[in-house]
Design a protein that fits this description.
Blueprint lengths: L8 H13 L2 E6 L4 H12 L3 E7 L1 H10 L8 E4 L3 H13 L5 E4 L4 H9 L12 E7 L7 E4 L9 H17 L6 E5 L10 H14 L7 E6 L1 H5 L1 H6 L12 E3 L3 H15 L2 E7 L5 E2 L7 H17 L5
Parallel strand pairs: 1-2, 1-4, 2-3, 4-11, 6-9, 7-8, 7-9
Antiparallel strand pairs: 5-6, 5-10
Helix pairs in contact: 1-11, 2-11, 4-5, 6-11
Length: 311
C-alpha cells in the first residue's frame, strides 16, 4: 500500500500564515511560458499574491487561452522584451508599487542583472543572496540552506551578508533566535580548506554581535550540525549541534547539491527566494513542483511583511 505523498507541516504552516495576511502585490516578470504563467496563477489561486503581469499582454492572453488558464483579477503592464520587463519590474518595486517580484520565463541572468545593477534601484547595503526554506520529512525543524543559487564563490564579506540575510528570513518565519551552522568538510580550522577559516572569523563576528540576532558556530561538518549524537561522539561542544535552523554552505556548488539531495532523496519541500534586495524575489524553475512554487510565494510574503512591505 502506498504511503501517499510526504506531508510538509512546516510548509503548510507557512502557506496558512501567508494566506492569513492577504495577497501580496507581486510583479511577475515576463511569464511567457505555460509553466511560468501557471506558477503565478497557482500562487494567485492560493491567495498568496496579487499578480501584476509584466510582459507582452497579447502574448500572455493567447498563452492563457491555449492553456485554459484564467487571467481573472490579473493586471498587466505591456512590455515586449524580457530585459525591458525586468527594468519595468525593478522600477515598480523601487517606487513601492509592488512588494515582491517573481521570475517568469526570462533567463535568471537577465532578471538578476537588472536587480544588482546600480541603476536598477533595488540594491541595499547588503549583498544579495538566496535562501531555501526546506521542510524535510522526518526532520523536526525546518532548515534554511544558503547560498545555493546566487553567489558562486563568496568571500568572507559576502558570507557575512549571506548569514545576515538568512537570519532575517529566519526571523520572518518566526524563529526568534536562529541557530546557524557554518558548514565545511571538517570541524577544525584547516588552511587547506578556506571555508574553515571563514567560519572561524564569522563565529567571532557573531560573538561580537555583528551578524544579527542569532547563535552562530563553525566550522561544522553537516553531520555534527544536524545530529547532537554525532557531535557528542566526536567530542564537539556546539551551541547549534542538533538544533540547527540555518545551514550556511561554503559555496554555491555545495549548496546546490545539498538542497537537491534533500528534495530528491528525502522528499523535502524547498521554498526559495532571493533576499538582500529592497524586495524579495521568487526564482521559479520549470523543474519546481506546484507545491514548491506556492511555498516560495508564501516565503516571499512572509519576508516582505516582516520588512514592512505589505501592499
Amino acid at each position: 500500500m502506498s504511503a501517499g505523498p510526504p506531508r510538509h507541516p512546516h510548509g503548510e504552516a507557512w502557506l496558512a500564515e501567508a494566506r492569513h495576511a492577504g495577497a501580496l502585490a507581486t510583479g511577475v516578470v515576463y511569464p511567457c511560458s505555460r509553466d511560468a504563467l501557471a506558477g503565478a496563477l497557482e500562487a494567485r489561486d492560493a491567495g498568496l499574491i496579487d499578480p501584476l503581469l509584466i510582459g507582452p499582454e497579447a502574448t500572455l492572453r493567447e498563452l492563457a487561452d491555449r492553456a485554459s488558464l484564467s487571467l481573472a483579477d490579473c493586471r498587466f503592464i505591456d512590455v515586449a522584451e524580457p530585459v525591458a520587463a525586468a527594468r519595468e519590474a525593478a522600477a515598480l518595486a523601487r517606487d513601492g508599487a509592488v512588494a515582491a517580484l517573481m521570475k517568469g520565463s526570462l533567463h535568471t541572468d537577465e532578471l538578476m542583472g537588472v536587480v544588482v545593477s546600480r541603476d536598477g534601484g533595488l540594491r541595499t547595503a547588503r549583498r544579495i543572496s538566496h535562501v531555501f526554506a526546506m521542510d524535510v520529512p522526518r526532520h523536526a525543524r525546518p532548515l534554511l540552506v544558503t547560498d545555493a543559487a546566487v553567489n558562486i564563490h563568496p568571500n568572507l564579506a559576502v558570507k557575512a551578508d549571506i548569514v545576515r540575510n538568512a537570519v532575517a528570513v529566519g526571523h520572518a518565519l518566526g524563529i526568534a533566535v536562529p541557530k546557524v551552522a557554518l558548514l565545511s568538510a571538517v570541524e577544525m580550522v584547516n588552511p587547506a580548506l578556506p571555508a574553515t577559516e571563514d567560519a572561524r572569523v564569522l563565529t567571532e563576528m557573531a560573538q561580537r554581535g555583528e551578524l544579527g540576532g542569532a547563535v552562530i558556530h563553525g566550522p561544522l561538518a553537516f553531520d555534527n550540525a544536524i545530529s547532537l549524537e554525532a557531535a557528542r561522539i566526536k567530542g564537539i561542544d556546539s551551541p547549534v549541534a542538533g538544533e540547527v535552523d540555518v545551514l550556511v554552505v561554503p559555496g554555491l556548488e555545495a549548496g546546490n547539491i545539498l538542497y537537491k539531495a534533500l528534495v530528491y532523496l528525502a522528499d523535502a519541500l524547498a521554498a526559495g527566494i532571493v533576499t538582500g534586495a529592497r524586495v524579495p524575489i521568487i526564482l521559479t524553475s520549470r523543474a519546481d513542483s506546484a507545491a514548491s512554487r506556492k511555498a516560495s510565494a508564501a516565503l516571499a510574503c512572509l519576508v516582505a511583511r516582516a520588512a514592512g512591505r505589505s501592499l
